[in-house]
């Protein structure tokens, strides 16, 4: 949908105030700076979220170029540029989200003719298979996007944001991020075997950080059994599931907002009832990068009911380049809202 850029003020304030757990939830990357003449592996990612994960694994031995690295850009409707095509053509490894989320990547890779391995996060994680919308491509974590595969994918993905029943926002799934980190380490080790141990160690460090985030999320759920939240879009659903927090949003509402259409009046009324009935939901989670008359109406209803409103984004907020710190701050927001 067309974004209505908004500064995630609550997120920025929360990140600035973050003191506990930063070192524990950092990337954990080992320090091994390359010599001046050491070539770096060129990695192209669709978004800065996957760029941050890739950088945590590759460290100083990779040069990561996210095609989308601004909170003012909605990846659903992103239109690739000639510069993007050139960047893809030069990549030695390509990391995309998949699931129809960054469908522009499929066309870019196909047009480039670049034989570099492509890691598709949805496929690697098996998320689509688990939710009945496709399957993973095996343990290797990457595949060669030849013409036949692009023909198969292009029929669905190239037409726009068509993700079936699966929730393609898998960078909010901590297990999926671990699987992608492992796939990145494996592919980098193949491309640059001299530093294979470095990549493997960093992927393990990523796993340790993700384990701490998982523990923190589940602790939030245990502290608030039966907690109920509403969301304007399904962006944070995977993280909410990890926390054991129930998302009671009418699916027709979040689906319509995500697709950039107006939810039916009856569905909006169902959503508004979540704040009017007693007790109301415990929090509202907004997508900070998009907005519409419907989401503004829901936000106003939440504020009138005294329900905490928190914002989570699809790409990384300004000034944030560490995946662990980003998710840690999102969990702090959730905990803060539920503690009220």
TrEMBL record:
Regions of biased composition (Gly residues) lie at: 132-141
Q: Give positions of region: Disordered.
A: 128-163
Q: Which residues form the signal peptide?
A: 1-24
- Basic and acidic residues compositional bias, start-end: 142-163
UniProt keyword annotations, A-Z:
Metal-binding, Signal, Transport
Concerning PANTHER family, the annotation shows: HIGH-AFFINITY ZINC UPTAKE SYSTEM PROTEIN ZNUA-RELATED, METAL-BINDING PROTEIN HI_0362-RELATED
This chain's protein is named: Zinc/manganese transport system substrate-binding protein
Q: Which organism is it from?
A: Pseudonocardia parietis
**What are the leading ranks of the lineage?**
Bacteria, Bacillati, Actinomycetota, Actinomycetes, Pseudonocardiales
């Amino acid at each position: 949908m067309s974004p209505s850029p908004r500064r995630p003020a609550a997120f920025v304030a929360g990140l600035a105030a973050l003191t506990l757990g930063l070192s524990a939830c950092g990337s954990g990357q080992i320090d091994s700076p390359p010599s001046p003449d050491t070539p770096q592996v060129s990695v192209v990612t669709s978004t800065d979220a996957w760029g941050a994960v890739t950088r945590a694994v590759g460290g100083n031995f990779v040069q990561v170029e996210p095609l989308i690295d601004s909170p003012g850009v909605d990846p659903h409707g992103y239109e690739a540029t000639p510069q993007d095509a050139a960047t893809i053509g030069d990549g030695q490894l390509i990391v995309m989200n998949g699931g129809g989320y960054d469908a522009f990547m499929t066309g870019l890779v196909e047009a480039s003719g670049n034989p570099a391995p492509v890691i598709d996060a949805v496929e690697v994680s098996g998320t689509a298979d688990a939710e009945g919308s496709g399957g993973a491509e095996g343990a290797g974590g990457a595949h060669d996007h030849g013409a036949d595969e692009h023909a198969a994918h292009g029929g669905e993905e190239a037409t726009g944001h068509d993700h079936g029943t699966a929730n393609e926002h898998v960078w909010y799934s901590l297990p999926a991020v671990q699987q992608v980190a492992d796939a990145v380490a494996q592919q980098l080790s193949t491309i640059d075997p001299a530093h294979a141990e470095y990549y493997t160690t960093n992927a393990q460090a990523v796993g340790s950080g993700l384990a701490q985030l998982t523990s923190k999320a589940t602790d939030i759920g245990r502290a608030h059994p039966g907690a109920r939240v509403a969301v304007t879009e399904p962006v944070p659903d995977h993280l909410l599931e990890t926390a054991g927090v129930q998302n009671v949003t009418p699916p027709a509402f979040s689906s319509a907002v995500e697709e950039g259409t107006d939810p039916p009046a009856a569905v909006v009324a169902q959503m508004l009832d979540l704040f009017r009935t007693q007790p109301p939901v415990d929090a509202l989670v907004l997508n900070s990068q998009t907005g519409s008359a419907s989401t503004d109406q829901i936000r106003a209803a939440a504020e009138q009911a005294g329900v905490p409103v928190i914002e989570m984004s699809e790409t990384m907020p300004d000034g944030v380049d560490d995946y662990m710190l980003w998710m840690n701050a999102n969990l702090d927001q959730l905990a803060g809202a539920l503690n009220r």
